[in-house]
TrEMBL record:
Its EC number is 4.1.1.20. It holds the Pfam family Orn_DAP_Arg_deC. Gene3D superfamilies: Alanine racemase (3.20.20.10), Lyase, Ornithine Decarboxylase, Chain A, domain 1 (2.40.37.10). This is Diaminopimelate decarboxylase. It catalyses: meso-2,6-diaminopimelate + H(+) = L-lysine + CO2.
Length: 381
């Protein structure tokens, strides 16, 4: 399906983020149907993209919200997510953020350490409340993704290491203002080897048995997010294979009667619906390299600079014969490079060049470095 562009593209200033809400709707519908087939609840990870029109559509599809800051909790509530569909994760929740979530009576805190558990207990007690908590465990499963976005290994800062679990459970038994409702794991992002989720399901089954042997029931299992998308050939997989993903947990998790399973997808739901649209400012040729210098840079899309990740680059204006370009932004950093030796049709000043699969962790991670303006968001579909 060709990229849907705004009717006023020729006069619209670049760079801007373009979101295809029709594609988002199809993606959410596919995820909803696959999740429902296995009776799994989806909490959308707001960190991937928290723009109001996107949240509105996610909320309309019946998903909950997975938040990682007090402001995300507030944004979810303001966007119409019911408090009992909101979870709050994060390794460093501040007292003010915990209080805000307690006062909103959100569904659950995903707790990442013993000290955090004690603080939630104390703050809940001071308000005459009992907070529902899930323990985020570090299952030591390798997500086989970029090391910067691997979160489930013992060396990572996230979650409670299994060696510390007995101590944390003992503490839990002594705290009157927290109620354990389940366990939570999240091992990383942009996971494309789905056998990783099979390993994870097996590990969650083992963890569940550990709790059961101690007489501790777990009404909820939250297996986190992480399903990856196709950055190389987005058009081949605009909608991820949700049936396969949910099928793994549906098939392999050893669910107890009445137990609820949750996932927290971010990227897989919103990545393909977003595109960063830019224009070529200059083509600069030296003996060694031909640079296409865009008006979008790492301030709009930092993923290539941060994780050496690739977003497919397309010149929508030119039909010329292909040449190789280093595609770069205008920012004062050498890492402000979107791709090296990229084959593009002959490219000229003013051509419209897009970076695909930018709906997740794109606009939300933008910055004002070099005093850059915030790129606009445009919605079609
Ligand atoms: C705790 C937690 N849940 C969910 C997500 C969403 O992950 P993804 O966008 O890879 O689905 C993240 C981010 O990696 C996370 O840290
Ligand atoms: N922001 C990262 C992923 C980290 C997700 C949050 N734990 C990305 O762009 O790929």
């Amino acid at each position: 399906m060709p990229l849907q562009l705004p009717a006023d593209l020729s006069t619209r200033p670049t760079p801007f983020y373009l979101y295809d809400l029709a594609l988002l709707g199809r993606t959410l519908e596919a995820a909803r149907a696959a999740a429902q087939a296995h009776d799994i609840q989806v909490h959308y990870a707001l960190k991937a993209n928290s723009n109001a029109p996107i949240l509105a559509l996610v909320q309309q599809h019946g998903f909950g919200a997975d938040c990682v800051s007090g402001n995300e909790v507030q944004r979810a509530l303001d966007s119409g997510f019911a408090p009992d569909h909101v979870v709050f994760a994060g390794v460093g929740k501040s007292d003010a953020e915990i209080i805000r979530a307690l006062d909103a009576d959100i569904w659950c805190f995903n707790v990442e350490s013993a000290p955090e558990l004690a603080v939630i207990d104390e703050l809940a007690g001071a308000r005459g409340r009992r907070a529902r908590v899930a323990l985020r465990l570090n299952p030591n499963v390798d997500a086989r993704t970029h090391h910067y976005i691997t979160t489930g290994l013992e060396a990572n800062k996230f979650g409670i290491n299994l060696a510390d679990l007995p101590q944390v459970v003992e503490l839990l038994g002594r705290l009157p203002h927290v109620e354990l409702v389940g366990l939570h794991v999240h091992i990383g992002s942009q996971i494309t080897d789905l056998s990783v989720f099979e390993t994870l399901a097996g590990r969650v089954n083992e963890l569940q048995q550990w709790f059961e042997h101690r007489g501790i029931p777990l009404p909820h299992l939250n297996v986190g997010g992480g399903l990856g998308v196709d950055y190389q050939e987005p058009d081949a997989h605009l909608v991820p294979d949700f049936a396969r993903y949910f099928g793994i947990f549906g098939r392999l998790l050893q669910r107890r009667p009445g137990q609820q399973v949750h996932v927290e997808l971010g990227r897989a739901l919103v990545a393909q619906c977003g595109t960063l649209v830019s224009r070529v400012l200059y083509v600069k040729e030296s003996q060694q390299t031909r640079f296409a210098i865009l008006d979008a840079g790492m301030t709009e899309l930092i993923r290539p600079a941060l994780y050496q990740s690739y977003h497919r680059i397309e010149n929508l204006t030119s039909q010329g014969s292909e040449r190789l370009y280093d595609v770069v932004g205008p920012i004062c950093e050498s890492s402000d490079t979107f791709g090296r030796q990229v084959a593009l049709p002959e490219t000229r000043r003013g051509d419209v060049v897009v970076l695909r699969t930018a709906g997740a962790y794109g606009e939300v991670m933008s910055s004002h470095y070099n005093l850059r303006d915030q790129a606009a968001a445009v919605y079609v579909g």
